[in-house]
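Predict structure. Chain length: 583.
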Amino acid sequence: MTKTLLGSLREYKKGSILTILLSVLEAAFEILIPLRMADLIDQGIDLGNMAAVWKFGIAILIFAALQLLTGVLSAHVAAKTSVGFSANLRQDMYDNVQTFSFSNIDKFSTASIVTRLTTDVTNIQNAYQMLIRMAVRGPVMLVFSMIVSFRINTTIALIFLAVIPIMALLLLLIIRKVGPLFGRVFRTYDTLNNVVQENVRGIRVVKSFNQEDHEIKKFKSISQSIYEDFSAGERLLAFNSPIMQFFMYACMILISWIGAKAIVASGNNAALGMTTGDLTALFSYATQILMALMMLSMVFTMITISLASARRIAEVLEEKTDIDNPADPIMAVRDGSIRFEQVSFAYAAKADKKVLSDIDLSIASGQTVGIIGGTGSSKSSLVQLIPRLYDVSSGQLLLGGVDVRKYDLDVLRNAVAMVLQKNELFSGTIKENLRWGNENATDEEIEEACRLACADEFIQSFPDKYDTYIEQGGANVSGGQKQRLCIARALLKKPKVLILDDSTSAVDTKTDASIQKSLSTFLPDTTKLIIAQRVSSVQHADLIVVMDDGKIAACGTHDELLKTCDIYREVYESQQEGDSEHE
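Prediction complete.
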């Protein structure tokens, strides 16, 4: 996990090393100041030696200035480095998500990915900044302050040695209790984001069913769960500061008592024991040691909070697409002919039931093929194998006479245009959305594609026509308009294979028929696969495939299936009766 995360450090490695060096220097200058302070008191003030006062006073000022300079520089470099590191992490995760196949995407919810890109990365950013500063400065101060303390007075230094393990043990107990709480909090954040996303996307449904109160209660319940876990964690972490303060003041009292007795016994003579300057230095080192421990406790606390985030980020970064380019890919698709040879498919390798079983199907280039079947009959799963959105589990699928797994992925997917059942429009103008199909498409080509998809008529009714701004997800156009824009976008690819996955369900039968006629007339060489619920959408197809429970129940023309396939005939008759009753 650590290796995975640090792989995103890249150009900020130098900044990390520089921060560490500056933090060490900052700690060193801070450790030197009490020694010079002791000399100032013993050799200057106590003896009334102004030359020594000036000498050590200037030295203290220089060390203080150097400590301030190195501290400011290390904070600046650490902030810049941690922000850059988090930007790289966010970019690397986003880039990796773009490589995912559908099966990879199925492992992560949209809300979970958003949480990982935002909250989790911010936690790592804060933790890393503390690591390269406090996690370096703290131990350096602790070790060197202990060494100098032992040189001044072994008895008093042993107080620190006794206190440190007790404080470390108490800190460890707190961290062990807090860790699982914060791990649970970030998982709950995923749920919270999911609820918000669903509510915002489906706000029209929420309002039409008057379910605002239900949604508020659902959000409040999850938010309360986060509050309770965070509160429990913060309550435990709150013990950290009082524990540190208790030991700090206890050490001060012991140092004062033992040190005062030692000074009185030695007559403030360094040769015989301790001096006032030594006691002052020990007070400073006691503060430094305990401050170093507080720094380390803050670092451990932040690491505890961010550990769950680190694991979640590593999961995304380490997830490898299960659909890769072959070693020597084929760079051209000959035609749109398709052949399924004993194809079986399951979403998970160890799934008990196959989604598709023993599919044998041949489609000639340029044919129009209708695919019909009940809900859950795996119609969409069948066509999603063609552009390798998923890979077959067994058998092989040929496009243009070549196994689809041998093509370069970009070449394959550019040859196959797919209008998904749940297609998306993105924020931007109509033109910008349509140019997803072909970024170099001219205005004339865009308008031609829209005419074929029966979209030009409603686009022309907008004040800004093709420059009309589309809201996120196509929220400001109707379902039928959205489907026609998506079809036009697919047509701009000029594909070898066009797949319409129930993508005319939101348009009326007249418009549907017009679209089918346009596709047949203007795309004679393109293989067209049309998944539909309405028989009228596919009855003029060259071939109709009837799916049932992941298998091909029958194949044939409309007239043939009416005679030979009970499933097709029942669907057709029920729709005819429905149309008659509607009339």
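Summary: The chain is about 65% helix and 10% strand.
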